[in-house]
Design brief:
It is a single chain. It is built from 15 helices and 22 strands. The chain is of the alpha/beta class and 497 residues long. The strands form six sheets. It has a seven-stranded mixed beta sheet, with helices on both faces. Strands 9-8-7-10-11-21 form a six-stranded mixed beta sheet, with helices on both faces. A three-stranded antiparallel beta sheet has the order 5-6-22. The protein binds NADP nicotinamide-adenine-dinucleotide phosphate. NADP nicotinamide-adenine-dinucleotide phosphate is lined by residues 164-169, 191, 193-195, 223-225, 228, 243-245, 248, 251-252, 266-269, 300, 399, 401, 427, 472.
Length: 497
C-alpha cells in the first residue's frame, strides 16, 4: 500500500486502495499478514466498509517487542539531527495530503470533515514541535559538597514504549505520544483502537517511509486484550502510555505492576461548566454548546454538567435550547453537519439508555435525546438537554461520552464548585463569569487538571501540559516540555577529578 503516500494520486484511487488492500501490521520492521482479519466501518453509513485489517497474534506482538528492544539501542545513539529530520518528514507528509487523510478520519471516526482535517494539521504540529524538542533535551550540572567532585544529571531514553490509543482522536493521540517518544530516543509499538485502525495505519506507513531505522516503530492492530497483555507482561517494554476508559486503564495498571512498567494513563472524565449570575449570556451559551455537543460529546474534555446560579438559570436555559435547535446533525462528510454520528451502535444505545435513566432519576428532558433516522442508517443522535438535575444522580456522576448535558441549579459560587468537584474524575472544569475575583478563586478551588475561564471545557492547545486529577489521569503530564518526564529517565553521574 505504499502508493497511499503519492501526492499526485487521485483521491478515488486512494480510497479504493484502502478498501481493497487488507491493512498489514508493521512487525519486526516488515509489513506482515496474520490469520485473523476484521473490518472497520463508517458510522455515518455502516454499509460503507472503509477497510479490512489484520489482527496481530500474540507471538507476532512478542516478536516485535524483541525486535523493538534491539532497535532502540541503536536509535538511542542516533544524532539529534536525524531525529529532527524524521519527525519533520512525518509532519510534512501528513500536511501534504491532509484533505485525503481528513476524509479517512471523518469516514472512520464520524468526525465532521472540517474537524477531521484540523486533526490532521494538529497531528502534524506535534511532530514538528517534538522535532525541535529533540535538540532541547537538557541535562543539568550541579556542584557537590565533596571537593573535586562534579555531578551531572542526564536525561536518557526509557526504552521500548507501548502506545495504546482510543478511537476519538485516532490520529492526534497517537501523534502526541509517538512524537516525543521518538524525539527522546525510544522505540515505539503502537496499538490503535480497533474502531479506527485506518488512519493509524496511514500514520504508520508515513513513519515507515522516513529514515527511521527498522524496528524503532512497530504498528500492531488487533485485540486490546492480546496486544495490551503482551505489552504489559513483557519486561522488554519499559513504559506504556495509554488513553482510553478507566476500566481498561486500571486493568492495564494492575497487570503492568508485575513487570514494574512505567505508566501514563489518560482516562475518562465528567467535566462541568459553571455559569454565574454575572456571566455574559452569549458567551455562556457558546461555551456550553461547544463543550457539551462538539464531536457528539465524545471528547474526554466534553462537559455534561452545566451548573447554573439562580439569577441566570431561566435565561440560560431559554437561550441554550434556542441555540440547540440550530445544530445540524448529519453525515460527517457533509460540510453542513456540525455534529456527526455516534461512533457505533453500542454508543448510540448507551446514549439512549442514559436518557431513560435521567428521566427515571427525576431530571427533566427539555430537548433532544432520540435517535435520528437517516437514509444511510448512521448512528445519529439528537443532542439532549436535561434540567433540574441533582449532583448525586448517576446521570451526573458517570461518564456518558455522548451529547447529553444536564443543568444543575446551585445557590451560589461555593455550592457550584462543590458540585463541580463532586465526581471521581478531574480532567477539565470551566466557569463563565465577569468577576476577576471569582475567576481567580475558581482557578484554585476546582480539583481538575485544566481550568477554563470564559471558555468551553474542551479545546486545549498543543504546546502546554495536559492531564487530569483523580480517576482521569495517572502518571506524568502529556504534550509540551512536560512530556520529557515520561519519555526520559534521569541518570545522576558523580565525577571525581
Ligand atoms: P477503551 O475501550 O478503553 O480502549 C482504548 C484502547 O485500549 C483501545 O486501543 C483498545 O483496543 C485498548 N484495549 C482494550 N482492552 C484492553 C486491554 N485489556 N489491555 C490493553 N488495551 C486494551 O476506550 P475507547 O472507547 O477507545 O475511548 C473512549 C475513552 O477514552 C473514554 O473514556 C474517554 O474519556 C477516554 N479518553 C481520554 C482522554 C484523556 O486524555 N483523558 C482522551 C481521549 C479519550 P480495542 O479497540 O481493540 O478494544
Amino acid at each position: 500500500m505504499k502508493n497511499l503516500l503519492e501526492n499526485d494520486m487521485l483521491k478515488s484511487t486512494f480510497m479504493e486502495s484502502l478498501k481493497t488492500n487488507t491493512m498489514k501490521n508493521l512487525i519486526c520492521g516488515e509489513w506482515t499478514t496474520s490469520e485473523e482479519t476484521a473490518e472497520n466501518i463508517n458510522p455515518s453509513d455502516p454499509s460503507d466498509i472503509l477497510s479490512t485489517f489484520y489482527k496481530a497474534s500474540l507471538s507476532q506482538v512478542n516478536d516485535t517487542i524483541d525486535f523493538a528492544h534491539e532497535a532502540q539501542k541503536q536509535w538511542s545513539q542516533s544524532p539529534m539531527t536525524l531525529r529532527e529530520e524524521v519527525l519533520n518528514d512525518i509532519a510534512k507528509k501528513l500536511l501534504d495530503n491532509k484533505e485525503y487523510y481528513g476524509e479517512v478520519l471523518a469516514r472512520e471516526a464520524g468526525k465532521p470533515i472540517k474537524e477531521a482535517t484540523d486533526e490532521v494539521v494538529k497531528s502534524a504540529e506535534f511532530f514538528s514541535y517534538f522535532a525541535a524538542e529533540a535538540s532541547r533535551n537538557k541535562g543539568a550540572f550541579m556542584d557537590s559538597p565533596r571537593n573535586n567532585v562534579d555531578i551531572e544529571i542526564i536525561n536518557e531514553p526509557v526504552g521500548v514504549i507501548g502506545v495504546i490509543t482510543p478511537w476519538n482522536y485516532p490520529l492526534a493521540i497517537p501523534a502526541w505520544k509517538i512524537a516525543p517518544a521518538l524525539a527522546y530516543g525510544n522505540s515505539v509499538i503502537l496499538k490503535p483502537s480497533s474502531l479506527t485502525p485506518a488512519i493509524a495505519y496511514i500514520l504508520a506507513e508515513i513513519i515507515d517511509s522516513t529514515n527511521l531505522p527498522k524496528g524503532v516503530f512497530s504498528y500492531v492492530s488487533g485485540s486490546g486484550g492480546i496486544v495490551g497483555n503482551a505489552l504489559s507482561d513483557s519486561k522488554k517494554v519499559q513504559a506504556i502510555t495509554f488513553t482510553g476508559s478507566v476500566a481498561v486503564g486500571k486493568e492495564l495498571a494492575l497487570r503492568s505492576m508485575s513487570s514494574m512498567t512505567k505508566l501514563q494513563l489518560e482516562m475518562g472524565s465528567k467535566n462541568s461548566l459553571i455559569v454565574l449570575d454575572d456571566a455574559n449570556l452569549d458567551l455562556a451559551v457558546e461555551a456550553a454548546i461547544k463543550g457539551a455537543y462538539n464531536a457528539n460529546g465524545q471528547k474526554c474534555t466534553s462537559c455534561s454538567k452545566l451548573i447554573v446560579t439562580p439569577g441566570i438559570y431561566d435565561k440560560f436555559i431559554e437561550a441554550f435550547t434556542a441555540k440547540m435547535e440550530t445544530l445540524v446533525v448529519g453525515n460527517a462528510l457533509d460540510k453542513s453537519s456540525a455534529i456527526g454520528p455516534c461512533i457505533d451502535q453500542k454508543q448510540l444505545d448507551s446514549n439512549l439508555a442514559y436518557i431513560k435513566l435521567g428521566i427515571e432519576e427525576g431530571a427533566t428532558l427539555v430537548c433532544g435525546g432520540e435517535a435520528i433516522e437517516s437514509e444511510t442508517g448512521g448512528y445519529f443522535f439528537r443532542p439532549a438537554l436535561f434540567v433540574d438535575g441533582k449532583s448525586q444522580m448517576r446521570l451526573n456522576q458517570e461518564e456518558i461520552f455522548g451529547a447529553i448535558a444536564c443543568v444543575i441549579r446551585a445557590e451560589n459560587y461555593e455550592e457550584a464548585v462543590e458540585i463541580l468537584n463532586d465526581t471521581q474524575f478531574g480532567l477539565s472544569g470551566g466557569i463563565i463569569t465577569e468577576s476577576l475575583s471569582m475567576a481567580m478563586r475558581f482557578k484554585h478551588d476546582a480539583i481538575v487538571g485544566n481550568i477554563m475561564i470564559n471558555l468551553a471545557t474542551a479545546g486545549m492547545d498543543n504546546h502546554v501540559p495536559f492531564g487530569g486529577r483523580k480517576n482521569s489521569s495517572y502518571g506524568s503530564r502529556e504534550k509540551s516540555y512536560a512530556a520529557s518526564d515520561f519519555y526520559t529517565t534521569t541518570k545522576t553521574a558523580y565525577i571525581k577529578y
